What we know:
Elements: H1 2-10, H2 18-38, E1 51-52, E2 55-56, H3 57-69, H4 77-80, E3 81-88, E4 94-95, H5 97-100, H6 103-113, E5 118-127, E6 130-140, E7 154-166, E8 169-177, H7 179-187
Parallel strand pairs: 3-8
Antiparallel strand pairs: 1-2, 3-4, 5-6, 6-7, 7-8
Amino acid sequence: xxxxKDEMKKLPCRELPNHQIMKNTSLLCCLVFLVSFxxxxxxxxxxxxxxxxxxxxxxxxxxxxxxxxxNRNLKLLDxxxxxxxxxxxxxxxxxxxxxxxxxxxxxLYLFNAxxxxxxxVVEIISEGDKVxxxxxxxxxHKGEFLGFQPTGKKVTYKQMFLFRVSNGKIVExxxxxxxxxxxxxxxx
Length: 188
């Protein structure tokens, strides 16, 4: 046994400082962690691609912005959104838009404040039953908005939305809107 230890001592081996060993171990752990989320395992199901009468989830989301918002076709809301549609507010509150009719008054409020409001879809990504959109909105401030009286200023702001689709209709939504940017433009 002693002969084997002596032989091992003769092998070219570089000793690493403790901090380098920890760094290498940490990197290896991170790599294993990341790979565990990207490699499907046996029995793992992939999200099903949802579709609607209007096409896939991307087409459904585009229809909302192109037809309902940009062309003011509110009649399509029932065909795009589920009666049980829930919007998750940034503060954690939930608005059941279609049941308590808050979506229509919200849109009418926006259309009154910005009669020429137009949304452009900058980026759209979907996977399974979800679709994410990055949009740019422009409009001329001609009605009261968030306490600001009409200024006549043209504003541009960015938004991000995430919608979940089930049975061909949008059932959940999340959104982040650059309200601070709008206020800055109206106040300056």
